[in-house]
Structures are given as C-alpha cells and as structure tokens.
Amino acid sequence: MLRRAWQELRIIARDPILLALIVAIMAALVVFVVWPLARVLVTAFQAPDGSFSLANFELLGQRRLYRNALRNSLVVGGLVGLVGVAIGYIAAFVLTRTNVPFKRVLHTLVMLPIISPPFAGAISILFLFGFNGLVTRQLLGLTNFSIYGMHGVVLSQVFTFAPIAYLNLRGVLAGLNPTLEDAALNVGASRWQVFWRVIFPLSLPGVASAFLVVLIESMADFGNPLVLGGAAFPMLATQAYLEITGSFNLARGAMLAGVLLLPSITAFAIQRYYLAKRQYVTVTGKPTASTSKIVSPGAKWLLYAVVVAFAVVVIAFYAVILLGALTRVWGFDYTPDLRHFRYVFAVGWETVKDTLVVAVLTTPVSGLLGMLIAFIVVRKRFPGRASLEFMSILNFAVPGTVAGIGYILAFNGPPLILTGTLAILVLNFVFRYVPVGIQSGIAVLRQIDPAIEEAAQNLGANAITTFRRITLPLIAPAFFSGLVFAFVRAMTAISAAIFLVSANWNLMTVQILNEVGSGRLGVAAAYSIVLLAIVLVAFGVINLIVGRGAEDATSVRF
Amino acid sequence: MPADLRLEKLRKEYASPENASSGGPERATVVAVDDVSLEVEKGALVTLLGPSGCGKTTLLRMIAGFEEPTSGRVYFGDRRVDELAPNVRDTAMVFQSYAIFPHLNVYENVAFGLRMHGVGKSELTERVGQVLELVGLTTMAKRAPSQLSGGQQQRVALARCIVMQPKLLLFDEPLSNLDAKLREQMRVEIRDLQQRLGITSVYVTHDQIEAMAMSDVVVVMNAGRVEQVGGPREIYARPVSRFVADFIGDANFLPGVLLDARTVRIAGATLTLADPCQERPGANVAVVARPEAMNLARATDQDERAAGTLSGTVRRTAFLGTIARYMVEVEGLPDLQVDVASPAETGLLAPGTHVSLAPGALHALADA
Ligand SMILES: Nc1ncnc2c1ncn2[C@@H]1O[C@H](COP(=O)(O)OP(=O)(O)O)[C@@H](O)[C@H]1O
Ligand SMILES: [Mg+2]
C-alpha cells in the first residue's frame, strides 16, 4: 500500500508543475470545501464555552418552531419531489418518445425556469395570487385568501424544480433501447403492460434518482420559502438564516444547518452510490430516438396536454414578471411605466455590476478548475486521488444555506478573514459549482482514448501542456456546459450568497429578495428581467467563444 | 559502442484484480513482463512477437515511459532512462489506435512535437514539409483527421513520429486496424522508411508473417518471458521450443529417438536432421517438420520403402489456391499436415490414396 503510494508520488514528481498543481488543488479543497463544513458541525456541537454539547440539538425536541421547520421542509420536499417527478417524467416521455409538434419549443420552455433565479416563480405567484394579486383580488375579488404557507411554497417549487426532474429523466428515457418495447409488444403484451412491466421498471432507478435530486433541491431552497412561506410556516433553510441574521445565534443556525445537511447527504449518497449503478441506459452508439408505440393516440394527446399546460404556465409566469416590471403599481395602477427599470439602472446599477463581476470571475475559474480536476482524477494516479475526487464533488450534497453558514463561520476570523470581500463570494461560487463541470468532464474524458494524450506526452508535451493543448479542446463540450452552469448559477444563486454579501459587494438575487420583502414587487420584477437578459446574452457569448470548438470536437469519430 | 536500446531484467507486475481487496502481506500479482533483458543494435528493427496478453504492449510502454517498471533498467545508449518522464525520453510511438489529435489538421498533427520542442518557424515548416512529402500526404496537409482513410491516418501517425528524428521509434500493432491488402502495403512502406532513415525501432505485433517480413531480429515472447531471439530465418528453422515452433508458422511434431547428432528414428524410419541436436543419443525428441517441407508422392507398390521416407494414407484434402493441404495418417504418428505448392498444375490426391512422405528441414527439440 505504502510502497504503491510512494511509487506513484515518485512518478508524479517527475512533472513538478503537475505535482505543485495537485498539491494546490488539494489544499484549496480542504480550505474551501471541507473546513467550512467542519466549522458548521463543530459549531453545532459546541456549548457557548466551547465544550462539546448536544444542547443545540436538544432544542430541536424542545422547541415547536424547530420541529415544525424540520417537518415542513421534509413534507414540502417530498411533495415537490412527487409532483415534480411526475411532471418531469411526462414531459420527458412526451418529448423523447412520441412524435408531437413543437418539441424544440416545448423543451426550451420547460427548461426556462432552470436558468432564472430560483424564486422567479414566487414573484409571479405574488403578482397573480398575492394580497393584491391579479387573479385572487382583481378577478375573483377574494379578500380572505392567503397564498403564504405550504401551498404557495409547493406551487412555486414545483414550477422551479420540475424542469430539473425533466432534465434528469430525459436522458434516462432517451437511453432506453426502443427495441425492448418492440420485443415486449411482439410477445403479446398489451401497451399498458409494456409500460408498467417494462418501461417503468427500467426507468425506475432514474425516477428515484430524479426524486432525490428534487428533494435535495427543495430542502436546500431558500428563496421560495422566504417569499412565500410566511411566519406561520417555518422551514429549515429560512429558519437557519433568521437565527443567524436576525438573532445572531450562530450556534443554532449551525445546528439547523446540520439538520438540513443530514437528509441531503443521505439522499445524495443513495442517489450516487446506489441508484447510479442501477441505471439501465443502453449506450449502443446508434441513434435510439425512435417513436414509442405504447401510447394510444388518446393517451398521447392527454400527456401532451400536460406538457403544453406546463409550458403555458411558464410563459404566463414570465409574461407576468415582464408586465409587472412595466406596470406602475401592480394591483392599483396598471399604467405602463419604465420607472422600475430606471430605478434598477440608477439606484441598483452598483448591484448589477457587482453581480456581473462575481459571475465573470467565477465562470472561467470554475470551468477550468472543473476540467483540470476531471483530467487529474481520470488520467493521473497519485496518493489521495479518491479523496480529491470526493472533496471536489462533496458540494453537490451540501445545501447552499449550509455552505453559506460554513463560510461565515470559517472566514470571519483569523487565520483567513474574507467576510465582506469579493473573494468570499467568488470562492464560494467556484467551489459550489465546480462539481457539475467535473462530472461532465469525467464523463467525456472516459470516452476519449488515453493514447491521444500519451501521444502528446510522447512527442514532448508535459502534463499541463497536454491538458491545455489536447485535453481541453477535446472536452470542449463538457467545458462549455461547465461554463454555462457556473455562470447561470453565479447569477442566480441566493441561498449561500445571502450570508456572504456585504455593503461593498451585493448581488442582484439578494436585492430582489430585499425588494420583495419591502413590497416593491415591480422593482423586483425589473431586476429579474435584467438578470434573465444577462444570462441569455452570456449564453450566446459563451457559445460563440467555446461553442465552435465544441462542434469540431464532437464531429470527430474515434 | 553500446547498443542503442538495452533492457536489463525489466519486470512489471500488476496487482491481480481478484486479490486486490484481500490485501494480505503477500498480495497476489500478475507478472506481465518477467525479467526481460534485450539489446537492440543501432538502426535495427526488432519485433516483439507473441500471442495476445504475453506482455508486448507492457514492455513497449515501459520503454516509452508510460508504465513504471517494477524492477529492472532501461538504457538508451549508455544513458539510463527508466527514471525519466515520457516527454523527455526522445522516443516516438505509433499507437495501435493511431491516437491522432482529432482537433488538429494533418499539418498541425505532424508539427505538434516540433512545437513542443520549440523548433523555430522556418525549420519547422521545412521539416514538416519534408516528412509529409516522404509519406505522400503533402496534398492533405490541411485536412482534418476525420477526413482521412485508415491508411492515411496511419501515415499521419508515422509522420508525426519520424519528423521528430527520435532516437527510438516504437510501434504497437500499428497495422492491426487495416484491411489485409493495405496492411501488406504499409508493412513495406514502414520498413522502407525505417531503413532509409536508419531509426532504431521496436515493433510489436502478434502477426508472425508481419514479424518475419519486417524484422532484422524477432523476439518471441510467451507469458511475459522471452522465448527466443533471432533473425526471422533462424527462429523459423531452429525454434528453441515447441511454443516457438508452433507460433511461427505451422508445425508437425513427430516423436522420435535420437540416434546421433544428425539422425533420428521416427515411426520406424531413419531421418536426417537439418541441424545437429545437442541431446545425447537415445534421448526422446520432438522433431519439428514443417508442412511445406515434406515431399509427398503417390506410393508405388513395387519398390521397397526408400530410406528416409514414411508411408501413409491421405485422409483429407483441401484446395487452398496456392497450396493443397492434406491430412496424412501415418501409423504410429499423430496425423500430419502436409502442404503441396501449385496444386492447380500438379492435381490433387484423393482421400484414401497411399503416399510416401519424405520430410525435410527437420529440427529436433528436447522432448520435455
Ligand atoms: N493496467 C493493467 N492492470 C492489470 N493488468 C494488466 C494491465 N495492463 C496489462 N495487464 C496484464 O498484463 C498482461 C500483458 O498485457 P499486454 O502487455 O497488454 O499484452 P499484449 O500487448 O502482449 O497483448 C496481460 O495479462 C494483461 O491482462
Ligand atoms: Mg498489446
């Protein structure tokens, strides 16, 4: 064991730059991923005098508020998981396995919530069903209806997270070999039987996996509960935030974060180490996109109607946000007006700029780091490789709230003081969003003949040159998706960011929440529209810079 | 002058997969390369020949520096290199999968190594131009690899190596992805270039015909060990073991008793060996008889059996175009394979025909 480690180290040491890089990445992961997490746990288990104590957790049993928060988070997570997966499954099935019109448009619409702030839906819901809501007040004239509470949160979270389920299930359903259907029909199974006996069981691991992903997202979500939860419906993530920013009780905040962490990590572990191995995606290399014959025309159009309905809701929600941004005072005075946008560009300009700076710094660093870690993990052998991989994707399982609390606990005092700086935001984002790039990088790299990189080395390139000149261009598609993901997330992040912003460095998402909090829905809507526009423009720019290379690389057959 | 490449008891062990978890002090290992020593003269082409899994690739990759030897040493000239990273070893390798950089065009693929070594612009243009000319790819310089045929991709892989003027050229089954015709053509081209440029080369193949056709020296490997080192004719005519005899070409093994260094008694007949055998007289030997070196004739009843012939009966006949392949039964011996050239002219013998056999070029092996 030791001998092997020593030998691997000797080989790596022949490429000193590589060795230095690995050590640096290791150190960075320990400091910016593990250490903050450790701080949360340590703080949660500490009495005020610093000794070990379970007192914080005993509060969970003693105080109704905390018990309710835990229960509410779990119930909402489960509900959103079920409904979100149902919608996602139907959309994935209809859009991958049936021939229906406007598939591309529907796909784009269903995906839209993913690239907007995770609480855009909540703003729309306030516009439509809030105290002065268009539907509830103006159309129905209700005065005693309240959108705040479980139904509001569930509604807006389904809107926000069903697309994630869709994205997960799309791959699963598209990957099922269509000849299986044919074979089952061929031996005399009815269409109904084929679905429940063949297709559904085969996609079950994917379904379970999508459910857990949505569950994690829902429990970690911060924006929707803050906007729509209301005081009578506490949830874990928001409660942790209130403990820290409201009553400055770090220990209790950390305890709640710890409680939040447990189901997340469990779900993540199940999803990753158990379900991932049971996915029956049959990769054959030949196009498997064939039309399913197991739905009758009636059923097909019924399912199609569900997808169209969801798409209509998406359109309606965004239209409402746009209208809200262009309306003088929603609920009272619907005169078209640009004052909210003027406000954003005058008063809020600094925030827009800060957000852009953070996102523009985060994106390339996170993108490159992701590819580099994928390269090292897949292609290099060195002691500690497994722990490096583990640390680098650990953040998948860590809810943003927990990460945010971890950062203020870890970097509020010596040896490394970062609170209030630009660095703390960028570092937090880089390490939170790098796992997606790493995962797609690893997946793409595993399909690339290692001999190509060996050939480069053989011709005189060292490891870093090989990475830059050969590997990176070849994994451009993964690089691209890593960049896009990092940018979108950096622009739309809220749950960790809200702990880390300061007077000097503020973010649009945080500002949107503030505006909602102070009842200026129009301004919040205008911010949201500006944010969405920036994300869409960035999509185009990144595509232009990296996309061409991506196309070249994917058109080559090995 | 020291040999261009010298391997000293080179050994590679891999942790065996099934025992990887048991983790005792004596963890089982797979020995992929078993203490191989070898010297390669300057300008020679040496093939590593052996069945799949015998350790050829592993050995080649240790020379290139992609695998770390468990023990043993590698010298280029008098410089020890096994501690060096692959990018500073001055070898160039043609990979089995070609490993052409798919995002670079032909010209840039060939120029890559020169750029890595900081070769100046004018020299680079000149050298790449020359090499492209040499392999006949001048007109394709701007093409993407995906627009090339298999043979052309092969040439790019080769050009990319020889442009480096490396100390050592390494090939890992470079022709295994080509169809038979092209394989033969590339075989000649590679050998031609190698000789013209005089680059010392190690060539891995499992195809004995390829090895015979191209090599100055053939190294026959089996289960990680070197079985025999020699020129193509030597290993064919004088294999040191049953394994070599069987792997190189076809062979009949005739059980016999050695009478003296040059004669052997097989199934009642006294036959002459092509080369002397070192075993003591009276020892049991296995005599290698090549199918094409056996003189086959229709037996005539009247004359007595001539000395040095066996008599038998044809059991099966197959017409293979350039040869006829017979299965001949001889009493006291296993069935023999006999190949006769130009059957279209001489005609075929029907099964059941009685024949006399005069085996030539016999080589005796100690019967272990
Ligand atoms: N990375 C590895 N890990 C474990 N065993 C290996 C590895 N590479 C090769 N081997 C084993 O070493 C032996 C020799 O392999 P190889 O050198 O590829 O043979 P050849 O090229 O002659 O077909 C085989 O038994 C193979 O299974
Ligand atoms: Mg091999």
Topology:
The complex is a heterodimer of chains A (558) and B (368).
Chain A (H helix, E strand, L loop, with lengths): L1 H12 L2 H29 L10 H8 L1 H34 L5 H9 L8 H10 L4 H6 L10 H26 L2 H9 L4 H30 L2 H6 L7 H11 L3 H26 L21 H29 L1 E3 L3 E4 L2 H8 L2 H31 L5 H10 L5 H11 L11 H25 L3 H9 L4 H12 L1 H17 L4 H4 L7 H10 L3 H35 L3
Antiparallel strand pairs in A: 1-2
Chain B lengths: L4 E11 L13 E12 L4 E5 L6 H9 L6 E6 L2 E2 L10 E4 L11 H11 L4 H15 L14 H13 L5 E5 L7 H18 L3 E5 L2 H7 L2 E6 L2 E6 L1 H6 L4 H6 L4 E9 L2 E4 L2 E4 L11 E6 L4 E5 L11 E10 L3 E8 L5 E6 L1 H4 L7 E6 L3 E4 L2
Parallel strand pairs in B: 3-8, 3-9, 6-7, 7-8
Antiparallel strand pairs in B: 1-2, 1-4, 4-5, 9-10, 11-12, 11-14, 12-13, 14-20, 15-19, 16-17, 16-19, 17-18
The site of magnesium ion has 3 residues of chain B, from helix 1.
